[in-house]
Design brief:
The structure holds 2 protein chains of 2 kinds. By secondary structure, chain A is α/β, with parallel strands linked by helices. Chain A is built from 11 helices and 17 strands. By secondary structure, chain B is mostly helical. Chain B has 6 helices and no strands. In chain B, helix 2 runs antiparallel to helix 3 and helix 5 packs across helix 6. Chain B starts with a helix and ends with a helix. The chains are: A alpha/beta, B mainly alpha. At the A-B interface, strand 2, helix 3, helix 10 and helix 11 of A face helix 1, helix 2, helix 3, helix 4 and helix 5 of B.
């Protein structure tokens, strides 16, 4: 089958690879019809995630058709068109029993810090991802959700990660009515976090980024205020000036370890790897939020350490909340929101690209070319909605 | 009145949010899917009655020192091999709490990249490195940026060659 193949930092290609097979009685094999490139895939692409092996296939955001099921699968049948949460979870362990599916204890042998994730290196379990024609889906009885007939497939693929993560980012902020929410990052997660903040009752939503085309998009899509941090001398002072000197009620980090905006952080974190990426946005969040406020973190960081102003967080009495999104628990409510017309996720898709052109798609996304916000890869055996040459 | 205070005090005047589609739909915490954070019983449609059976182990899979054994479900793609595989095996003797574990894995990744090039050449395939880096997209959407990178790279290489040649003449 055709599959994306990682060859080293900044190098991927698409080539033939053996099709996945049933390895556990509760596996399913899914023929992929749509797969997205996520912003966190760029951390893999840039070689920042330990134990990312040459030959791996990335892709944790995908939907597809069930082609084969293992002998113990009871809740799916061949032919079902499913959206597959990026979390691989068992549904039975201590954490799954508490709906913390992203923290499943039974699906990642290599690290206890995170549950299994499709196509996210051996640090996240060593599973191949969905940027391919076929993918092995473990625990098929609990993970995949059959796509409702009235749900657009472009919306469905955004329900596998991007929208639930953006929503959970806002949810972890414990937003109260009228709260001022500052979201760092105008990528797909930040865009959905901004939209979700309104659903949760925010009184003011401000999105911060440096890419003008993304700021213009989120300003319209999420009806929010925007700040280009290149125009700002000091982020924390700027936010405080915008909030009567108090700071925001909630600050959300939707950027993660490859943040730009601070020279020292970029040098020590991104280039010299003296810390697990640049903690620029963590600094901004902790220093921009008001005393007693909440910092919500969904930006991805590496497994070592980062230098952050924890003293400030202590003295200000902050609440810090963070996790990978537990997608499955969010699906019913988010599908309701889509069906009620409160949110239209597919608007953020800017590029639809044949899987064969994944190398160019990755570079486009990584370098933020052609006003790229979200890219969907379409394998050759999928029915293309619209394939656009990159 | 300041915007921040205005926003807070606007709680009783929700008409100011009328233009925001769906504003406040999840204001009530009972509508929030992940509230409370830990929720039992889990609202799975078909909750499993027991932990999953052990997947058959047919390849080398490392497991964290924080676990007694390999998890019931695991990924089997790209088993460790070569020098990078040995480094990874060494890394997994250390816990996730030890930065040496992660540094060894990163070193293995870099060596693995070279092994990948070697594998390509051994199988008669010369990797199209520029293609793998997305040269087509770069030339189409950022030709000026590409020209700049070529110029800078050429200048750095040129200066390096000059310095090496000069040192050799002096030596």
């Amino acid at each position: 089958m055709l599959a994306m193949n990682y060859r080293g930092p900044y190098r991927v290609r698409v080539q033939q690879k053996p099709e996945p097979r049933i390895e556990h009685p509760n596996d399913a094999i899914v023929r992929v019809t749509r797969a997205c490139i996520c912003g966190s895939d760029l951390h893999l692409y840039h070689g920042l995630v330990p134990d990312t092996r040459v030959g791996s296939t990335f892709g944790h955001e995908f939907i597809g058709v069930v082609e084969e099921i293992g002998p113990s699968v009871q809740n799916l049948k061949v032919g079902d068109h499913v959206l597959v949460p990026f979390n691989i979870f068992c549904g039975a362990c201590y954490f799954c029993q508490r709906e913390l599916y992203s923290n499943c204890h039974n699906t990642n042998a290599e690290a206890t810090a995170v549950g299994g994730i499709y196509g996210y290196s051996h640090t996240a379990g060593g599973y191949d991802g969905g940027q391919a024609e076929y993918v092995r889906v473990p625990m098929a009885d609990v993970g995949p959700t059959v796509i409702p007939p009235d749900l657009d497939h472009d919306d469905a693929v955004l329900l596998t990660d991007a929208l639930p993560t953006g929503y959970q980012a806002a949810e972890m902020g414990d937003i109260d009515e009228g709260d001022t929410v500052v979201i760092f990052g105008a990528g797909p997660i930040g865009i959905f976090a901004a939209k979700s903040a309104w659903l949760l009752g925010a009184g003011r939503v401000i999105v911060v980024d440096h890419l003008e085309y993304r700021l213009q998009f989120v300003k319209t899509y999420a009806q929010c205020e925007v700040v280009n941090f290149k125009d700002v001398r000091d982020m924390a002072i700027h936010i405080k000036k915008m909030t009567d000197g108090l700071g925001a009620d909630v600050c959300i980090d939707c950027v993660g370890c490859e943040a730009v905006g601070n020279v020292m952080q970029s040098i020590t974190g991104r280039y010299l790897k003296l810390q697990a990426g640049a903690a620029t946005v963590l600094h901004w969040c902790i220093n921009s939020v008001r005393k007693g406020g909440t910092v919500s973190i969904v930006g991805v960081y590496g497994p070592t350490f980062n230098a952050i102003p924890i003293g400030n967080a202590i003295n200000k009495g902050l609440t810090l909340r963070m996790n990978q999104a537990s997608v499955k628990r969010h699906l019913p409510r988010l599908i309701e929101h889509i069906q009620a017309g409160r949110i239209d996720p597919k608007q953020i898709i800017t590029h639809r690209v044949p899987l064969e052109e994944a190398a160019d798609a990755y570079h486009l996304f990584s370098s933020k070319l052609d006003n790229c916000i979200k890219t969907v890869l379409i394998p050759p055996k999928a029915v293309p909605r619209m394939a656009v040459e990159v | 009145m300041d915007q921040a205070v205005q926003a807070k005090q606007g709680g009783n005047d929700r008409s100011r949010y009328a233009h925001i589609q769906g504003w406040g739909a999840d204001l009530d915490h009972r509508n929030r899917p992940a509230y409370p954070m830990e929720r039992m019983p889990a609202r799975l449609e078909h909750p499993p009655q027991h932990e999953p059976e052990q997947q058959q182990i047919t390849t080398t899979v490392f497991h964290s020192t924080e676990r007694p054994r390999i998890t019931p479900i695991f990924g089997s793609t790209v088993p460790p091999q070569g020098l990078s595989g040995r480094l990874r095996a060494w890394a997994f003797k250390y816990s996730e709490n030890n930065v040496f574990h992660w540094l060894l894995l990163l070193l293995a990744d870099r060596i693995n990249m070279m092994e990948g090039i070697g594998d390509d050449l051994r199988s008669g395939h010369v990797p199209n490195v520029l293609g793998e880096m997305g040269i087509k997209a770069e030339l189409k959407h950022n030709p000026a940026g590409f020209a700049r990178k070529v110029a800078i790279t050429s200048a750095v290489v040129g200066v390096a060659c000059f310095l090496i040649a000069r040192n050799r003449r002096r030596g």
